[in-house]
Each structure stands twice: as C-alpha cells, then as structure tokens.
Design a protein that fits this description.
With 153 residues, the protein is mainly alpha-helical. The chain contains eight helices and two strands.
C-alpha cells in the first residue's frame, strides 16, 4: 500500500523511514508536512527511479509524403484504405520500393496508385502494368479479328 504525496508515491519502505525519523525527533514539535518538505530529496532518492522514455524521432507520415509526391487526396486515402485492409505496412522503405517500381513503369505516381486502387493492389510492380497492357492489346487484336470475320461473312 502506498500513499500519494507531493507528486510521488510513498512506498512501505519510505513510510518505515519516516517513522524512524519521527521516533528520533521530538514528537511534540513534529510537523509531518514541514518534515516532508525538508526530506523530499531523500525520499525521492529512495523511491524507484522512473524509466526515461527516449525521445521519438520524427515519425514518417505516409499519407503526407504521398501528397507531397503529387498524389491527389482521394487517391491517397483510397489506396491507404486498401493497404490497411490488406495489413500492409506504411513505412518509408515500402514507399521507396513503390516509387522505384513506378519509375520503371514510366507512369506518374498518381496514375500508378490509381491503377493500384482500381485493381485493389496494396503495392505496385512495373511488371503488373506490362501484363495488364499486354492483355488489353491482345483483347483489342482479338476484337479486330472478330470484326474482320464479320466483314468476310
């Protein structure tokens, strides 16, 4: 059991220390609050030291960095929702990797993330763009062949 006093807790050990000090002093003239003020430093030294939390360095803001790189608010918000649903980490390293892939594809970051949102991708790879464009070219070629067959008939 401990008692709160003067912005720190007095533990059992400190209570015993105070009782010993009271026994040594003249009880008639003893004022606990005056004595506590006089011996506050000793009590703090005896109490458990608090762990010092290291100061946090500036946290990386994934959304703000996307916006600074030219992504619109709507696209950034939508893509971050997709990443959250897929439990993807929004780290600086992840963003650097995505930017490298966007560079390889020759697209803008905003266009690449728009494509990612449309396909529910939490990331982006340049090879994915090539596959989708190849598939769409194949589909248009097939459509041309169908049109030729219809003209022939």
């Amino acid at each position: 059991m401990s008692y709160a006093s003067k912005a720190f807790y007095i533990s059992k050990e400190n209570i015993e220390f105070i009782k010993a000090q009271v026994d040594q002093s003249d009880r008639k003239r003893f004022n606990p609050s005056v004595w506590l003020d006089e011996h506050l430093d000793q009590l703090r030294a005896k109490s458990k030291p608090k762990k010092q939390v290291p100061a946090k360095k500036d946290e990386f803001n994934f959304r703000q960095t996307l916006i600074n790189l030219g992504v619109t608010n709507d696209i950034a918000d939508t893509w971050l929702k997709i990443r959250k649903a897929k439990k993807a980490t929004n780290s600086e390293i992840a963003l650097k990797g995505i930017c490298k892939e966007v560079e390889k594809s020759g697209m803008t970051l905003n266009d690449a993330l728009t494509m990612s949102c449309e396909n529910s991708w939490s990331g982006f790879k340049a090879s994915w763009v090539n596959k989708t464009t190849c598939n769409s070219q194949f589909t248009s070629k097939t459509q041309q062949n169908i049109d030729k067959l219809e003209d022939w008939a």
